[in-house]
Write a structure and sequence with these properties.
- The complex is a heterodimer of chains A (307) and B (76).
- Chain A is an alpha/beta fold and 307 residues long.
- In chain A, the strands form five sheets. In chain A, strands 1, 2, 5, 6, 7, 8 and 19 form a seven-stranded mixed sheet that branches. In chain A, strands 10-17-11-12-13 form a five-stranded parallel sheet, with helices on one face. In chain A, strands 14-15-16 form a three-stranded antiparallel sheet, with no helix packed on it.
- In chain A, strand 12, helix 5 and strand 13 form a beta-alpha-beta unit.
- The longest helix of chain A has 21 residues.
- Chain B has 76 residues and is α+β, with helices and mostly antiparallel strands.
- Chain B has one domain: Glutaredoxin (3-Layer(aba) Sandwich).
- Helix content of chain B is 42%, strand content 22%.
- In chain B, helix 1 links the parallel strand 1 and strand 2.
- Chain B is globular, with a radius of gyration of 11 Å.
- The chains are: A alpha/beta (307), B alpha+beta (76).
- Chains A and B meet through helix 2 and helix 3 of A and helix 1 and helix 2 of B.
């Protein structure tokens, strides 16, 4: 049975940075991930990552990948962990395809779009319901769409669609939109935008594809005839598989300032953790810190060769 | 073998899919559905859904960047 020094779960900014540090420490390690770049790949324009006055999310993600590839790091993809558990001196990772063992783990699995959890959402996923406005937006050219959410990513999606859709609805659970004022002002100047606050989507309906949504706005039921439903209601941490780890009320893994979780040898970094402020540059810093902590853990513990 | 990739410019999985094909030495036709409205309709028609990327290998559509499905289609 192969036992790695370290397994890094996830290859977003935190996981990739941890991998670069692990390669430089010459650890025997592997990265297991479902994709490369994580949320950075989905970001629009980035103007606050030091060293780049301007770079797009996908471009920065490609830079990260190139940096990782320059070390010849072993990446197992696409695989996702479904369970991790400590077994005496080693940690077992069960993925959707295989099993792996290591002495230390860094969980850097980030976050995933939050689901609406309403009737029709699953059925019409890909058939009008999308979680990546940046990706699929252009396919909805000439069609009416509803954006669910009121934060920056929702407003970003709305601004993308105002120029190509006849009608853009925004359904927001909050009493007023919470995104940046600059974006709200831009939307107010668009004649084809209609905003519903204190509103929720009750169900999504259609035939082969979405034909509309039923919403409840200020306790009044309404139907909106739309072909696209863009869900932009925030993110959930991908930590469900890490059942033994302590989490906060948002489901984020609790770490100390050394990125140590409540289980020895298990570290976590980036947006999946309780660390405040979800920023690419913070995730990178946390990834490096987690790797240095894991390295310290590995070098200050002796392991018998088998167990 | 004829390979087409229906994509949009800003979609990361489209980039990944195209890079993957290039790394395998597979030539493909890139179809940007954000500029070609007819192609966008055709993509929905052949794939039965509205998400990008759609990779078409010899007429058979694969939805999303599904490495294993792409490998299987290329190997066949």
């Amino acid at each position: 049975m192969k036992i790695y020094d370290l397994i890094i779960l996830g290859a977003g900014p935190a996981g990739i940075t941890a991998a670069v540090y692990a390669a430089r420490k010459r650890l025997d390690f592997v990265v297991i991930t479902k994709d490369i770049g994580g949320q950075a790949s989905w970001s629009g324009d980035i103007e606050n990552y030091t060293g780049y006055q301007f770079i797009t999310g996908p471009q920065l993600a490609i830079k990260f990948q190139e940096h990782m590839d320059s070390f010849g790091i072993k990446v197992i993809m696409p695989q996702s962990a479904i369970e991790i558990s400590r077994q005496e001196e080693k940690i077992k990772v069960i993925t959707d395809r295989e099993e792996y063992f290591s002495r230390a783990i860094i969980v850097a699995t980030g976050k995933n779009p939050r689901l609406l959890s309403v009737e029709g959402e699953k059925e019409y996923k890909g058939k009008g319901v999308t979680y990546c406005a940046t990706c699929d937006g252009p396919v909805f050219k000439g069609k009416n769409v509803v954006i669910v959410g009121g934060g920056n990513s929702a407003l970003d999606a709305a601004l993308q669609m105002v120029n190509i859709s006849p009608k853009v609805y925004i359904v927001d659970i909050a009493p007023k939109l919470t995104g940046d004022e600059v974006m709200i002002q831009k939307l107010k100047q668009s004649s084809n935008v209609e905003v519903f606050n204190n509103a929720i989507v009750k169900k999504i309906y259609g035939a082969d594809f979405v034909k509309g949504v039923e919403i409840e706005a200020n306790s009044e039921i309404k139907e909106l005839a739309v072909q696209g439903v863009f869900v932009e209601i925030g993110l959930n941490p991908n930590a469900g598989f890490a059942s033994g780890l302590k989490k906060n009320e948002s489901g984020e893994i609790i770490v100390d300032c050394y990125n140590q979780t409540n289980i020895e040898g298990l570290f976590a970094a980036g947006d999946v953790t309780s660390v405040p402020e979800k920023q690419i540059i913070i995730a990178c810093g946390e990834g490096s810190k987690a790797c240095l902590s894991a390295f310290r853990y590995l070098s200050t513990h002796s392991f018998s060769s088998q167990a | 073998m004829v390979v087409q990739v229906y994509s949009t410019a800003a979609c990361p999985y489209c980039h990944m899919a195209k890079e993957y094909l290039t790394s395998k030495g597979v030539a493909y036709q890139n179809i940007d559905v954000s500029v070609d409205q007819e192609a966008s309709k055709k993509m929905v028609e052949i794939s039965g859904q509205m998400g990008v990327p759609v990779i078409v290998v010899d007429g058979k559509p694969i939805v999303g960047f599904d490495k294993m499905a792409i490998d299987a289609a290329l190997g066949a």
